[in-house]
Amino acid sequence: MGKNVVVVADPLAADALGQLDGCEVRHCDGRDPGALRRALRDADALLIRSGTRVDAEALAAAPRLRIVARAGVGLDNVDVDAATRAGVIVANAPLSNVLSVAELTVGLIITAVRHVVPAGRALREGRWERSRHQGRELAGSTVGIVGLGHVGTLVARRLAPFDVRIVAHDPYVSTPRAEQLGVTLLGLDELMARSDFVTVHVPKTPRTDGLIGDRELRLAKPSLYLVNTARGGIVDEAALAVALKEERIAGAALDVFAIEPAVGNPLLAFDSVVATPHLGASTREAQERAGREAVAAVRKALAGEVVPHAVNGAAVARARELAATGAPEAG
Ligand code: MLT
Hints:
Helix 8 links the parallel strand 7 (about 165-170) and strand 8 (about 185). The chain has about 325 residues and is of the alpha/beta class. It contains 13 helices and 12 strands. About 45% of the residues are buried. It has 2 domains: about 5-95 and about 285-325, 3-Layer(aba) Sandwich (Rossmann fold); about 100-275, NAD(P)-binding Rossmann-like Domain (Rossmann fold, 3-Layer(aba) Sandwich), CATH 3.40.50. A 7-stranded parallel sheet has the order 8-7-6-9-10-11-12, with helices on both faces. The chain has a 5-stranded parallel sheet with strand order 2-1-3-4-5. It binds D-malate.
């Protein structure tokens, strides 16, 4: 029997890839759909981060594929339904980078409100602009967290010592749980109206696409800094640009964009915007964890074992069972 072929379509931690002994590891540039389809022709497993889009077409080009393993959290770049229909397991590394994202979020809040980027740029250009870049303290302000899951909770815990009031919007979190975290739950509109900082920590789904749009931004106070380290598009970029241009809000800190790489994005032209190139998970620790977990998922899938963080494990098992018995799929 030949070796299993594992295609690595995004840059992954080298140490983790070292665990793929016994497999033939092939690298391709997953951002190029043609190159991805060619690489998938005889692939048994595919390893990705967020740069590779695994759609129905890519899956159709992969007759032997058994698993797509995402070294990271978000699965908005994988057509999970199409994978399930094709009998392909999709697994992620759900906790691998949450701490890194939370830490970056706190850093971006302070960077934005203390004008670190424009003041630093002025200094490099020869201007000592102390009063022009007067910021605000965090203490006493209200921070609104949209999505109190793993990252949102870590952000709340890390911000609490700054003596801020923390409010959150999350329909899936109970009041006792929020109270335990010292957080007051609010509807989204009220959160937008009360907060001096709003930070978004929800996955990108059809329901969260454009969640913070023109209507929500019109509810905001002029002191608002909007932070997005979750996914581009959850904040409507056109609406945000108008709010910034009309100075209806103070600024934004963005690590993610609707289209990435976001080179040339009009939001980058605003001095009131701090922007980073999707760095949330880009720490040594997070990449090692994510790579290790994704590689472990690949090894388990190729060995025919249960994959712990498979998001469609049961559905794939059922689809395979039906295919083996020739029974028609229900529903
Ligand atoms: C994630 O969803 O895990 C992060 O956005 C990081 C990444 O895509 O690499």
